[in-house]
Amino acid sequence: MTDLALRTGSINLGQGFPDTDGPSKVIEAARQALSHGANQYPPLNGTAPLREAIANQRQHRYQTPYNPQEQIVVTTGATEAITAAILALCEPGEEIITFDPAYDVYPAAARFAGARCRRIPLCPTLHGYEFDPQELAAAVNAKTRLVVLNTPHNPTGKIFTSAELQNIADVCIRHNLIAVTDEVYEYLTYEDYEHTPLASLPGMEERTLTVSSAGKTFSLTGWKVGWACGPTHLVSAMRSVKQYLTFASAAPLQDAVAIGLTSEEGWVAGLRRNLAANQEILSQGLRKAGFNVLPAEGGYFLQADVSPTDQPEALDFCRNLPHMGKIVAIPTQAFSAPENTKRYSSLVRFAFCKNDEVMKVAAQRIVTCFQHHR
Ligand SMILES: *Cc1c(COP(=O)(O)O)cnc(C)c1O
């Protein structure tokens, strides 16, 4: 889709990467680190300042304590953290539960581990996306090892409610499962929505690996600096895998990210406001053009239902949109397991992580293209 965007001169609302830079203080810190010799292998676990900054951030924001010596590992993006966690904790033939649609790394990492992925569908309803707790309970068996939870969720924009988190925690505790949480959008929540880590629920800290990254929080997706926090035995298993995946992650970027976590909350608050405003611009355009819009509670993406248009199938819609409207978007079913694609056949994921000028042009293009097309 990114290729198609380039070939057709479209605005790329497919892939989720921002078009404005991260905080200048953080970028300057990386530049300083490059010219002051931070250019050799850092420790496997990550540099001490970054591990300390992560521990402080987790403690202050969520009251979850982690010892930076033994309970944190810095990784090459959240992607490596998730992959290392799954490889470390799942044997061939074991099972992972996650929700559908899902970020594509989870099923891919499950395959690397020889594990099977069971995907609980999130169903679009009037109140947003919901899963059936009975389906979750029924998915657990003797081979189940892990539950992978992503909140705020890509691609739906859902934030799991406290009742849903409690339900997932109960299942993990009852069946002695480990949770791996992907919290890369932990700061990007809108309106009154707030992020609650699964690890902050009673009984979960000792069985949860919490994964996050600098990419989305600081609009530095190209840096690929991520991390995982959790109980010593789980982090130690992850470190053993990371040793042979990458050994260590980019040295000059780590202490710069530490500065971001320590002193750039204000910058991140501004990012969150801009994203909320951009979402509004895009939703208004989509609504004006006749789509049903499911607003994002968090993250980079919103969902639009294209069934009211003359191209009610999201796949056809997304194939034609670059040619008709010079916009690229992704059919939600691309993130779904084959058994669930039908549920999402009229849904399209649009990114709103571009600057407001680009979002205005995109919204205008959508209105012009579809107002007379219904
Ligand atoms: C972008 C994204 C990631 C990737 O994070 P990196 O730090 O770039 O590896 C992981 N999970 C979700 C849900 C994402 O949207």
How is this fold's topology laid out?
Blueprint: H1 2-8, E1 11-12, H2 24-35, H3 48-62, E2 72-75, H4 77-89, E3 95-100, H5 105-113, E4 116-121, E5 123-125, E6 128-130, H6 133-139, E7 144-150, H7 162-174, E8 178-182, E9 208-213, H8 214-217, E10 226-229, H9 232-245, H10 251-263, H11 265-288, E11 292-294, E12 301-305, H12 314-325, E13 327-328, E14 330-331, E15 347-351, H13 356-370
Parallel strand pairs: 1-13, 3-4, 3-7, 7-8, 8-9
Antiparallel strand pairs: 2-10, 5-6, 9-10, 11-12, 12-15, 14-15
Helix pairs in contact: 2-10, 3-10, 4-5, 4-9, 11-13
The structure holds pyridoxal-5'-phosphate (PLP).
Biggest beta sheet summary: 7 strands, mixed
Cα(first) to Cα(last) distance is 25 Å
What Rg, in angstroms, do the CA atoms define?
20 Å
Could you tell me which ligands this complex binds, including any ions or cofactors? pyridoxal-5'-phosphate
- Number of separate strands: 15
Q: Tell me the overall shape.
A: globular
Tell me the strand order in the biggest sheet.
Answer: 2-10-9-8-7-3-4
Secondary structure class reads: alpha/beta
What is the average of the pLDDT values? Answer: 96
Helix content: 40-55%
Low-confidence runs of at least 5 consecutive residues: none
Q: Give the ordered list of helices and strands.
A: HEHHEHEHEEEHEHEEHEHHHEEHEEEH
Protein name: Aminotransferase class I/II-fold pyridoxal phosphate-dependent enzyme
Organism: Streptomyces meridianus
Cofactor: pyridoxal 5'-phosphate
Domain Aminotransferase class I/classII large: 11-366
